[in-house]
Amino acid sequence: MTETSITSRDNPIFKRLKKLAESARVRRDAQMTLLDGEHLLSAYLDADGQPHTLVRSASFDAHQFEHWAARCPDAKSIALPDALFHEIAPVLTPTGLLSEAAWLSPVSRNATPLVIVLEDIQDPGNLGSMLRTGAAAGATLAVLSKGCHDPWSPKALRGGQGAQFVLPIACGVDVAAWCAQFEGQSLALALAEDRSVFSSELTGPLAFIVGNEGAGLSDAVRAAASATVQIPMPGKMESLNASAALAIALFEAVRQRLA
Question: How far lies 177's CA from each of 54, 65, 112, 199, 209, in Å?
């Protein structure tokens, strides 16, 4: 393994990595991102991805780094002093390993459509968790509105734990227009609706729509949906976290489909 040591912030590779860490526009234009840690790198490799660059901090175990470099024979290997590594790491307690990787484009499975439609989800952890739940439930597509957080940001990737590598994602979508052309049920999850998700037929082509964490669904998307449904909450809470609500609805669909 040939490893390049970088010690200057003026190095063009360091500058490139820092921009990828900080800018959604740079990630979108380059169709590249940074993967933090060994778990995401392993999931990326399992999805037949190959990173462009492997980066370790000076304190990361060199023998362990050699293991990953051997699994990524075409990747350039970089070592950074801990201080420089912290500048591009997406978390407060860095793992010591980063991978510069191209976005993957998973192919939708030939199955009855089960789509998650997300309108203006702002929190990267929430977004990643929703994508992870969708992937675990066997969703065939994730549709993200123009106002959603970048699904390929380092924090969303950490929340997704590899979901972005296996779940097809359509970004920047006009959700109301998408619902209007969807050939199946599009069910908006909302409060104070008479129809329960548990009493709904969920075995055919289906899309669940979840709105912004604070504002909920827009009027245009509500109107475009086939119906709005609620999750019954007998306890004394006003609402559920958007990610939790989506998980409940998705796995009710899974239960019905397995039955």
Answer: 41, 47, 21, 27, 13
**Residues 143, 180 contacting (CB under 8 angstroms):** no
Write the pLDDT tens digit of every residue in 75-122.
Answer: 999 999 999 999 999 777 889 999 999 999 998 877 899 999 999 999
Query: Which of 218, 213, 238 lies closest to 228 in space, CA to CA?
Result: 218
Which CATH number applies to 114-258? 3.40.1280.10
Give me Rg for the CA atoms of the chain: 20
pLDDT single digits (tens) 201-245: 999 999 999 988 777 889 899 999 999 998 887 787 777 788 999
The two structure tokens encoding residue 167? 């779940």
Q: Is 242 helix (H, G, I), strand (E, B) or coil?
A: helix
Taken in order 210, 215, 218, 219, is the CA torsion positive or negative? positive
Does domain 3-102 bear CATH number 3.40.50.12780?
no
Return the H-helix or E-strand segment holding 201.
none
